[in-house]
Structures are given as structure tokens and as C-alpha cells.
Amino acid sequence: MSGILRDQPWGYRVLESTVSKCCPHHRVNRMAWHQGGILALTYLAYTCYHMTRKPISVVKNVLSLNCSSLSPPPNFLINSTNKDTWCDWAPFDTEDAPALLGMLDSAFLFAYAASMFFSGFIAERVNLRYFLTFGMLASGISCYLFGIARPYNIHSLWYFIFVQAIGGVFQTSGWPGVVTVVGNWFGKGKRGLIFGIWNSHTSLGNILGSLIAAEFVESDWGLSFMVPGATMGLAGFIIFLFLVPNPIDIGCVPPVSPGYRKFDATHSSDESSDIDDCGNCSNDIEDRLIYRCAYREQIGVDDVLEDVVGVRSETSPILSRHRRVHNHHRGDAIGFLGALSIPGVIEYSLSLFFAKLVSYTFLYWLPLYIAASTTYSATLSADISTLFDVGGIAGAIAAGILSDYSGMSAVTCAVMFGFAVPVLFIYDTIGSSGLVMNIVLLLVAGLLVNGPYALITTAVSAELGTHPSLGDNSKALATVTAIIDGTGSIGAAVGPLLAGLVSRWSGWHNVFYMLMFADILALLLLSRLVYKDLQKYIYRRAV
């Protein structure tokens, strides 16, 4: 058996063995089943990544409370060790609490941004199943370590900064890993819609993180971190058991770009449809050798190619094409400078810098802002803040559909950036005037803020990572994803830090002016790509 089939996940082997015994003669589209499983597993993985990032934004409301005028909850037992710290928590019990809490955000996000570039470099060169498993386990542990500060009565600022920084480093395993796995299994058709729906894991993770943290925040905030951390560790074990990073790993023919076509046995020209997936096996000898899944015939892709040699000569078009397909998925990893030279990478990276600045400021400060601008409790403020992420789910799907339909990703992002500015202004002005108004504006703001952010980090990154300028070298997806998301993550680190400082010294109104200005800059940085998109659209209409 070919060596490429040896490192299959244990859970996958058991599942395949069970299915083959239960339904030995049942023909199914195995590629479709595998693709569905990959979407589910990567969705679970990145939901957990974001679930462990969110608790800090909820717990801020408790860590920075002034307890002198408050009474503990009815179910809270005061003893000699916690009588002075039942709600606030040193060193965050001073007037400088917003700045100190902003330092925690920055420790996480700057470590995340700096490590992201290295993470993409590593992801191109290792088995992504091990890469994601290790990253999820380590991230879960770091989240858990923040929570144990509560029962162990830890009050060192440097402890919290260190734990946040370590968490930021290991969290970088998530995005390059899951985007590359999904990119390996799916072609370019309707990529915006697929990624738009799939990218809702970001918002779902934020929602789950907020709800779990809110459940414990007023009774035992340590559990707000420990429960998500333990959940992520369990999810990492599931990824280890079942994730197959590449179709080649189980002997399936990977999706290929539109440039690679299926040759008819009786014609030498490139006239027929795109290559079928491994579930559509044919009785024709050529199709059987090319398209069958290796686990059904107990051979690998290399063996398939060797069999084809016996059928066609080395100069045969069919062999030449499959050598190109094989190289396409096993090529050398691209360098950092090579990825930067791909057209559009720099513009989208810089635009994402400001887009994530806005999104992550909401992520880390929205519950505290709602509590500060209204009379709502910490729990209710955390629950309301999840509506921003609900809007983000709709925004990611809408952006993906618009991008697929129009073929103009830059224009889609620019339009949403443009509409986000007045919505943020309205939310700052009248958002706190009533519960209904707060809900409606948060949903709309989440749609417009997270829509372009989601599109750039998923479909756009995948498109640039397989850009035609790369030729046969396709191993740029993780590197390009890491460059774009890493640059955006620098903005994500700067935003919450500035929000903490600005809100402390100038008030929340100036925080929103900062966010509006950031969205305008994100729009302007895409202006060249918007112009090119419009030119292509006009040309298509003319033809």
C-alpha cells in the first residue's frame, strides 16, 4: 500500500470499517460525505477557538466592579479568603481598570498577530491534524489557567498577561489550519457561499463563549474560563480522531482547478467536463484508474499513476494531466515574499487590519460598553452583546452570496464598509435609548462590520492562495491566509488597546469615532481593487 495512506486518523479507520461491514455493496458519493464531515469538524474546531476568546470580555464587568456599595449574590458564600474580593479582583479594582484590562487584550492579540506569520509557515509543512490538535489542547489549557486564578486567589497582573500571551500564540494554529483543510477539499465553485455559511463558526463561538461566561460571571467567574477551556480540549481530541486534512491522505482524487479537465477516452482534445470526485466511479478502465478512491481498491494515488503508465505511454495527455494534478497538491510550500507578491494580498491585508480593529473592539468591549451606557446587569449586557455576532452570521452569508453572484469581492467589501460608518454613528447616538433600538442596531452593525471581515479571511484568502500566478505550486493557502489574518490581527490588537485608553480618558463617544474612521480607511485601501473589479464587470457586460 502507498505510504500516503498509512497515517489515517484512528476514528476515521473505525468509521470506515463499520460502514464497509454494515453496507458492503451500497454505493455512495464518498467525496460528498467526506466534504460534509470536513465542514463539520473544522466548524467545530474554530467555534471552540472563538468560544475560548470571548469570556474575558464578559468577566471584565465583574473584575472592575467597585464592591463597596454592592451585596453578594444570594448563593455566594463569603469566607475569610474572599470577603474582600467577592466581585472585584485586584489588580483590576482601581480607576485604571480599563487600561489594565486593555493590556490583557493586547497581550493576547499582539502575541496572536506576531505568531500568526510563523504559524502559517509551519502549517504548510506539517500534518494539519496534529497541528490543529496540539493548538486546540494548548489553547484550552491556557484558557483554563486564566480561570484557576479565581479558586487559587491569584492577583498578579503579570500572571494574567503571561497566560493571555501564551493563549494568543497557540490560538494562531486555528485559522491557517482550518482554512487550508477546507481549501484542500473544495474547489472554487460557490466558494463565497460555502465559506460564508461555514464562517458563522466565528460568531457562534462568540455567542457560546458569551452565554457560558454569563452563566457563571456573577457567582464564580473562574468557571467562565474553565468550562470553555475543558470543552475545547475535548474538541481537540475529536479532531485528532477524525480529521483528514487532504483527500490524498485517504486516496481520493482532490478537487482540481478549472484548468484541469477530464479527457474522453476517444478524443485527444480537452472537451469534456471537470474531473469527477472519487464517489463517481466508472466501469471504464481509464476512469477506474483515475477516479476511484484508493481505500476501495487498497491502493494509493501514486499507485494509480503507476497503473495508468501501463495503460498509456509517458507522453499520453491523460498521464501528463494527472502528473500536473499530483504536483498541484504536493508542490513545495511558497515563501513569505512569494506570497506577498500575489496581486491583492497587500491591499486585502491592510484593509483587514482596520476591519478587525473594529470587529475585535466590539468583541472585547461591547458587554462593558452596554453595561456602562445602560442600567443593565453584567449578565444581561453579555446576553445582548451576542446579537452583534448574530448579525455577523447573516453578514458573512450575505457577503459570500453577493461575492459569488457579482464576482466582485472588493466591491462587496467596500459597500459594506461604507454602510457600516453611518450605522455606527447612529448606534453611538441613540443605541442606548431603549432595548429594542439596541437590539436592532446591534444586528445591523454586526452584519455590516463582520460581513467584509468574514469574506476577506475566507473566500478571498482561499482565492488568493490558489492564484493563477502560482502556477503548479499550490501550497500557498496557509501562508497567504496567515499573512492576511496576521496583518488583520495586528489591527485586532491595536483596537481593544486604544478602546481601553480612549474610553478611560475621552469617553465612549470618541471610541466610536475611532471605529468609524477605521472603517473609512478599510474602504479606501480597497479602492484600487474596487476599480479593477468594476473594469472586469464592464468588460464582461460588453462581451
What does this entry look like structurally?
With 543 residues, the protein is mostly helical. It is 70% helix and 0% strand. It has helices spanning 10-22, 30-51, 55-63, 97-123, 128-147, 157-171, 174-185, 191-198, 200-216, 223-242, 285-291, 294-297, 301-311, 317-330, 336-340, 345-373, 378-406, 409-430, 435-465, 477-505, 508-525, 527-542. α5 (128-147) runs antiparallel to α10. The longest helix is centred in the last third of the chain and has 31 residues, at 435-465.
Alpha-beta content class: mainly alpha
Could you spell the SSE succession in H and E letters? Answer: HHHHHHHHHHHHHHHHHHHHHH
- The poorly predicted ranges are 82-86, 257-331
Please state roughly what percent of the residues sit in beta strands, choosing from under 5%, 5-15%, 15-25%, 25-35%, 35-45% or over 45%.
under 5%
List descriptors.
mainly alpha; 543 residues
Structure at a glance:
This protein has 543 residues and is mainly α.
Task: Describe the protein's topology.
Layout: H1 10-22, H2 30-51, H3 55-63, H4 97-123, H5 128-147, H6 157-171, H7 174-185, H8 191-198, H9 200-216, H10 223-242, H11 285-291, H12 294-297, H13 301-311, H14 317-330, H15 336-340, H16 345-373, H17 378-406, H18 409-430, H19 435-465, H20 477-505, H21 508-525, H22 527-542
Helix pairs in contact: 2-7, 2-9, 2-10, 3-9, 3-16, 3-17, 4-6, 4-20, 5-6, 5-7, 5-10, 7-20, 8-17, 8-19, 9-10, 9-17, 13-14, 16-17, 16-19, 16-20, 16-21, 17-18, 17-19, 18-19, 18-21, 18-22, 19-20, 20-21
